[in-house]
Amino acid sequence: MNLNKLFFGSALTCIAFALSLSSCKKMALQKDYHRVADTVDSHVNMTAWDYLKKRALGTTSDNQIWKSFYDGIIYSGIDTNEYTKPGRTYIFLNTDAVTRTNSNLADVGFFGANLVAGKTTKAWTEYPKDFVKVNLQYLIIEGVHNHYTLPPVNLVEVKTLAPVGSLDTLPKGVTRNSSYPFVPNHNSTMTIKVLNSSPSNTSDYPIVLNEARNVRTSSIQATNGTIHAIDRFLTTTLGQ
Predict the structure, then answer these.
(1) What does the DSSP assignment read for 12-56?
(2) Terminal CA-CA length for the chain
(3) Interatomic CA distance for residues 200 and 183, integer angstroms
(4) I want to staple 68 with a disulfide (CB 3.0 to 4.6 A). Which of 62, 98, 105, 129 is the partner?
(5) Is the pTM of this model over 0.70?
(6) Reported confidence tier of residue 150, pLDDT bands at 50, 70, 90
(7) Residue-wise over 154-189: b if at least 16 C-beta within 10 A, else e?
(8) Confidence grade of residue 202 (pLDDT, cut at 50, 70, 90)
(9) 44: number of Cβ within 10 Å
(10) Helix (H) or strand (E) holding 217
């Protein structure tokens, strides 16, 4: 073995190691970075009715998302003061939750789920006013039920404004499509819970209504209660 080569190689290794230590000593210490939490304020600082009108009767498409829902309320003759009373949960319907029709019968709105003479509809006026009113009353729940108040995972059965017995039958000429068969809901109640999972990368622990519809935007805090917005038909069949 050539001892000179061995000594020379070892010397180079030591020098390189020493230089690396020297370089590390010259590096500045990493500073702590204190992140400031940035959360969206869910308070809208107005009643549910005022917020509905703001997002229904605006001049831009973003502020017309509940226009079809608003039209249904006006057509039905429901007392709009119901949307100003305190201590309630309100389910709002965006445009798709009202008007959407589709060959996929499960992926529809109110007009695609509730058929008149066996066909999908294009306007609230094709339905009896009382039928529309009862279905809108069903979307108003007594009590505030949102991410801040609901128990983890457990299903809660809640009372709606739809009168007892009003969901026992469908009016003459109105049927449901095959994906949403009509089942009587004599007590006009609804089930609500927080899902113990994230079904998509844009939906973390959503609120679920009647074990059938995930809320699109939840826990909007109005001055008189909470608002949940959905984008597809919500069956009145009670979730189990």
Answers:
(1) HHHHHHHHHHHHHHHSPPPPP--PPP-----B-SS-HHHHHHHTT
(2) 83
(3) 29
(4) 98
(5) yes
(6) very high
(7) eeeeeebbbeeebbeeeeeebbbbeebebeebeebb
(8) low
(9) 16
(10) strand 217-222
Cα angle vertex 186, ends 180, 192, to 5°?
Answer: 65
Task: Supply 67's token pair.
Answer: 């226009």
Tell me the two tokens of residue 134.
């009862």
DSSP secondary structure letters along 141-182:
EES--STTTSPSS--EEEEBSSPTTTTSSPPTTEEE-TTS--
Computed from CA positions of residues 226, 230, 234, 239, in that sequence, does the dihedral angle turn out positive or negative?
negative
Long-range own/partner contacts, residues 212-216 (CB < 8 A, 24 or more apart): 212/237, 212/239, 216/94
State how far the Cα of 152 lies from the Cα of 40, in Å rounded to an integer: 22
Tell me how far apart the alpha carbons of residues 78 and 90 are, in angstroms, rounded to a whole number.
14
**Burial class for 153, CB neighbours closer than 10 Å (0-12, 13-18, 19+):** exposed
